[in-house]
Amino acid sequence: MIDVDRYAGGILVVSYGDCKDRDPASALRAAGITTPTIVRRENTTVATWGALVAEQASGSPVVISGLARGPRAAIPPAAIDLATATAGDETIWDLMPPFAALQIDDRSTVRAATDMLGFRHVYHRRGDGWSAVSTSSLVLAHLDDARIDRQGVAVQAMLGWQLGDRTLIHGVRKLRERQRITLHDGELTIDEYAPASPHSRIPIDTAVSEASTMLSDYMVDYLDENPDAILQLTGGLDSRILLAAIPRSRRKGLRVLTLSSGPDSEDVRIAAQLAERYGMVHLVQGLSELSDLDPSEAHALVMFSARQLNGMADPVAHAALLVVESAFPQGARISGLGGEVARGFYYVGPVIGYPVARPLTRLLVDWRMFANDSVATGALNAEFGEWARPFATDEVHQVLLNTGLPWPDATDRMYLYERMQRWSGVVDSAVCLGRATVNPMLDPRFIDIANSLAPVDKAHARFLAQLVCRLDPELAEIPLEGRRAPLAYAAPGLGQRLTNGVPVAQKAGRKIAQRLRNTRRPPAGGDTLTTLLTEHWRRNPSLLDPVRKTRVFDDQWLDGMLAGAAADPSTTALLASMVALSPS
Prior knowledge:
Keywords: Ligase. By secondary structure, the chain is α+β, with helices and mostly antiparallel strands.
């Protein structure tokens, strides 16, 4: 069994007003936290566990993201002041996601803040005469009424992740981007430590120039500070950009790692070629270790993952990655996460500034957003399922409308501040205490550049392709996994656009076929872990009793699964998340 202890850790602070009867100890036990350190003061109780167990000195900021990093270097916790939203010479706005910190002053005023994207997940709850903030929504759930938020479950059943500040627990909310929470004498207030940054359009040439300089400087500074850092390298465009940003003189001997999905992995083939070309050390790890788990071990690992994710992302996929990660070195890590924000991830068809309209929203959710991660038809309680899909569609539509932007810009904003925050961010939050990972394309400077580009310059990866060309023309000529070389996307003519459109059309065709067949692409290792997990439930069917009481899942479907019927990974993921919500 892999060692997951390094990822575990968290903090809970309860502020008391008239009510003094909240019992953090019992809430922690119910959430599966058995050895916390609890310190009670006059008007607050602080509980820490795992990696944060020693971090609760009054007045000293607690960095609850494992790392506080500015544009060029790490920031010491003592330099952070949440009252003024500063971090040494920087502001909290300038810090790299995921970041969050918590601070208690000598008047028992509690403050917490998260980064400019809201990546590090921090949760809060208020009651009658008390309020609380924590890294664990499950702990907050057990401080009071722990019933599920059916609207949150509906959205997650369709999307696989959350929207807004919602969680799966009624009354528990997430701190959003640029927000700071203050607790004092049981009262809770939330403000924004920085306004939303206005963006004026910039030409693509300017964007490429600024982004290439920023990324090159970032990579040099980071490798100077962390010479043993490891680059996550695939056959895709985002990691290609980061490799291109590393000077050739710094590539020889650089360690790069790739996850292998099978013996014919194109990611591995392309990454291996790049490693050989530049003299890099290539680390490859597959998923064979998953088969060594027995059902009880698989269940324990998935439950750990679900609690780390606070039930709000796929714990089956996350558990598989934990197994793979256990075989990799755990030093400083460089990840390509973030490139999607600069290539119009949700664009479909011509990039035209239509106003947000419900037919466009229905097209987006039906053929893109719900296609991969929604729960299987028939698995949900009929009444709940009939209501959940249109409700989730309405929620997506409202998010798009609230941007006040034309359709392409609205989808970009939703991708950055909803999908990236609530899907990528929650996964980063689950591992940030155990692994120091930086995502250069989530640097606030890169995000500002991406937000300032016209949609037509982001579409079809035009901006990102030109970025590779500027950083390293040689790398721009090497084909990507399943796609042509970046050079082909940089400034294609009509004929080239038609050629480039073939992979896009093929992908769209797969999406259409996927929807017609009502099938979903499983995450890496998802099928293996789903088989083990369902086998454990068949041996221990009472584990599903609390889920039955919610009337979210169909009883006949649950009975069929327990009797031997197959369950797909997306449906199993939501079911596992809801099992994890039950008191331990």
